[in-house]
Design a protein that fits this description.
Oligomer: heterodimer
CATH architecture of the largest domain in chain A: 3-Layer(aba) Sandwich
Largest sheet of chain B: 8 strands, mixed
Distance between the termini of chain B: 25 Å
Strand content of chain B: 15-25%
Structural class of chain B: alpha/beta
Number of helices of chain B: 7
Number of domains of chain B: 1
CATH superfamily of chain B: Glutaconate Coenzyme A-transferase
Number of strands of chain B: 14
Number of helices of chain A: 10
Structural class of chain A: alpha/beta
CATH class of chain B: Alpha Beta
CATH architecture of chain B: 3-Layer(aba) Sandwich
CATH topology of the largest domain in chain A: Glutaconate Coenzyme A-transferase
Largest interface: A-B, 53 and 52 residues
Number of domains of chain A: 2
Helix content of chain A: 25-40%
Order of helices and strands of chain B: HEHEEEHEEEEEHEHEEEHEH
Shape of chain A: globular
Shape of chain B: globular
Strand order of the largest sheet of chain B: 2-1-5-10-11-12-13-14
Radius of gyration of chain B: 17 Å
Radius of gyration of chain A: 18 Å
């Protein structure tokens, strides 16, 4: 095994540079890598391009903190609470650009990135106004299928500069396991140029060896491993802890009143 | 002694959508979809419908008695004792092969051509309201065999023409794929002659339904009244959502 990739949060955040594209693990209120996001906010990075399928909490706090200048997502929602408050406000005020994606096409882009091919055809999608939008941004094109001669949508490979993935456990080398729902996080690991694993538990390699399970990430993919116990709070961590909906609701209400930064400082930046 | 809850329009919607689930179908629900989740539960537990349960939680065939109403319908703890994990992107692959029978979608606007909007109110570049985004809508609309949209029954939602086509209903109508709209007053089916009111909830009024929509709605010759959920149905809905969080969605 190569050398250990275990490091502190600050050192891991240094892998991210201004202007880079990032993606994170989880969906709305589940398995967001909140500890590292807290360090990312504190680092003062800016102009990041956030790419994800169905983000919620992590995206909103990053936008509220002025870290993000562009978002590409299929849906950004606070579900029953309402629209993602800071994302909505920032888009409507023209402070950030929002490129709406759609799930199947988003996954196709990641698959192309993971497979090292330039683009990926995808079914569906044609006939939606999203097509015009992506043709303008250069992320999708409508081509003729060379076999059937019918129209087909192709998605340009998505290769985020950095993926921050929160997992249940990892060894110090980045051989990591996600338990329960995986969403498209394993594709993110394989498509990204650099991967930061944040793990609830750091375990010996022999612990992983014992189960011989399918690995969500291997040391081949990973640049950094950070120990992050309860590192997804207030979002849920399958097999470990439930989402703290009270905290999420408090954030939502404060953000709606223009107090997102104050909540973030008190609850995230002071915690980590 | 349990408290008797009087059925409200939200409960009618749950019952109405539950009746659209058939034996043997492969059914998927996404995020912010608590009403469809309750419909799936009702179909399973009261009608004994035997269908494949897939969802954004990635829990494949969870035990329905363990499913609880969470503030996120993607919460990994909301659907328990599943047979295993089926990642959402695999569901998208199944859909591309025509193997997903039914999916439910929300809409901030839906128009006469069945197009839905979950993207923006106003122009895309300078939106008056930035909506959450359609998630899988644009991808799945042309692929899933039967789509049920649920929405508020008012002029702001049921429009003649959407501001932005997120879900390409026009293509479903062209390709003769089933597209249904369940509001908090009744059920509308899209036909090549436009939206057709097929089911009206007990105590609702046809005139009220057609007048409270900007889209033009025809009334089916075979229109029928949906009875209120009975005690057994209400008991099941209440068991899974004991705090009545479903009423916070604004459907009455």
């Amino acid at each position: 095994m190569p050398s250990s990739k275990l490091m502190g949060s600050q050192e891991a955040v240094n892998l991210i540079e201004d202007g880079m594209s990032i993606t994170v693990s989880g969906i709305t209120f589940s398995r967001n890598p909140m500890m590292l996001i807290s360090y990312l906010i504190k680092s003062g990075k800016k102009d990041l391009y956030f790419i994800d399928r169905e983000p919620g909490f992590a995206l909103d706090v990053l936008v509220a903190s002025g870290v993000i200048s562009k978002v590409r997502a299929s849906m950004a929602t606070f579900e029953l609470y309402g629209l993602a408050p800071s994302v909505r406000k920032s888009v409507e005020e023209g402070k950030i650009e929002f490129i709406e994606d759609t799930c199947g096409a988003f996954v196709a882009g990641l698959r192309a990135g993971a497979q090292g091919v330039p683009f990926m055809p995808v079914k569906g999608v044609l006939g939606s106004d999203l097509v015009k939008l992506h043709e303008k941004t250069g992320t999708w094109k409508v081509l003729k299928d060379p076999f059937s001669n019918e129209e087909v949508l192709v998605v340009k490979a998505t290769r985020p500069d950095v993926a921050i993935i929160h997992v249940n456990y990892s060894d110090e080398y980045g051989n990591a396991v996600i338990e329960g729902p995986k969403y498209e996080d394993e594709l993110k690991v394989r498509a990204a140029k650099k991967v930061i694993i944040t793990a609830e538990r750091i375990v010996p390699t022999d612990y992983i060896r014992k189960y011989e399970c399918s690995l969500s990430a291997t040391t081949i993919h990973v640049s950094a491993v950070v120990w992050a116990p309860r590192g997804a709070w207030p979002t849920a961590m399958y097999n470990s802890y439930e989402a703290d909906y009270k905290a999420i609701e408090n954030y939502y209400n404060e953000a709606k009143r223009g107090g997102a930064s104050s909540w973030i400082k008190r609850n995230l930046l002071n915690r980590w | 002694m349990s408290i008797q809850i009087k059925p409200r329009p939200t409960d009618f919607m749950i019952k109405c959508m539950a009746e659209l689930i058939n034996n043997g179908e492969v059914v998927y629900h996404g995020l912010a979809s608590q009403i469809p989740v309750l419909s799936m539960l009702l179909a399973r537990e009261v009608s004994g419908k035997d269908f494949i349960w897939l969802s954004v939680t990635e829990a494949y065939m969870p035990l329905s008695e363990t499913v609880k109403f969470y503030l996120s319908s993607g919460d990994p703890f909301s659907e328990k004792y599943s047979v295993g994990v089926v990642p959402t992107y695999e569901v998208f692959d199944l859909a591309a092969q025509g193997k997903i029978d039914l999916m439910f979608f929300g809409a901030a606007q839906i128009d006469e051509n069945g197009n839905t909007n979950l993207s923006v109110i106003g122009s895309y570049e300078k939106p008056k309201v930035r909506l959450p985004g359609g998630a899988a809508t644009a991808y799945l609309f042309p692929l899933v065999k039967k789509i049920v949209v649920w929405a508020h029954h008012d002029k702001r939602t049921l429009v003649r023409k959407v501001d932005f086509i997120t879900g390409q209903g026009w293509l479903r109508i062209k390709n003769r794929l089933k597209l249904l709209l369940c509001t908090n007053k009744g059920l509308i089916e899209y036909t090549d002659k436009g939206p057709l009111l097929k089911v009206i909830f007990e105590n609702e009024d046809i005139k009220d339904i057609t007048e409270n929509a900007d889209m033009r709605i025809n009334v089916s010759d075979e229109l029928y009244y949906l009875k209120a959920p009975n005690k057994k149905e209400m008991k099941v809905i209440q068991y899974h959502d004991p705090l009545g969080l479903r009423y916070k969605l604004g459907y009455g």
